[in-house]
Amino acid sequence: MARHPAFQSVAQDEKVAEAVRALVGPDAEVCVNRHNMMVVKAPRVGRQIDWHQDGVNWGHARMVSFMVFLDDASVENGCLEIVPGAHKYGLFPTVQTSVGEGMNVQDPLQAALLRQAVPLCAQAGEGLFFHSCLPHFSKANGSDRYRRNLTFAYVAAADKTAAAGGMAPLESLPLTIERTVGINS
Question: Cβ neighbours of residue 108 under 8 Å, at least 6 residues apart?
Fold first, then answer.
């Protein structure tokens, strides 16, 4: 968000803020040290991101992410794949993967759950909210097209100090930008 005002504007957009408050609560804030990023899966280069839950690597299980697609996302260019409703199970035991701590695909219970995964294809300009306990994955980009997205995380102000496992405390900003109206506006 600090790299350009346009990114901050997306993260703190009034419509996004309304949806986030419905999911997180009225005291929702936008995190600056969790999922404040742009993902770039270049054509034929973008790597696979193994199955994981963001809450494990963040030390926090009660956050929501918002992913905004800058390009169309398809199975061919590595769209997000999820297990619908699996966030309700909380955080699973993990193993070391390409993204840090991730899902144990060898564990029979986790493997059975992951077989229920569905791809989330999206068009450029669409957005997706997902819980920090939702298992997700994306294949390598095998296409000739980019797959880029912005991703932001949100947390209730009351939950900010709940980072676990020696993780850095959550840092956040107010959800909406204070806008001032000038003479030339």
Answer: none
> Domains in the chain, ordered, with CATH?
5-174 (2.60.120.620)
As a whole number, the mean pLDDT across the chain is: 89
Q: Say which range, 33-42, 56-65, 110-119, 160-169, has the weakest mean pLDDT.
A: 160-169
- pTM for the structure as a whole: 0.88
Element (H, E) at 16: helix 14-24
Contacts of 157 (CB under 8 A, 6+ apart): 27, 28, 29, 172
SS (H, E, C) 71-126: CCECCCCCCEEECCCHHHHCCCCEEEECCEEEECCCCHHHHHHHCCCEEECECCCC
Distance CA 97, CA 100 (A): 5
How, if at all, do strands 147-156 and 28-31 pair? antiparallel
Query: Are the CB atoms for 51 and 105 separated by under 8 Å?
Result: yes
Which residue has 């790299």 as its token pair? 3
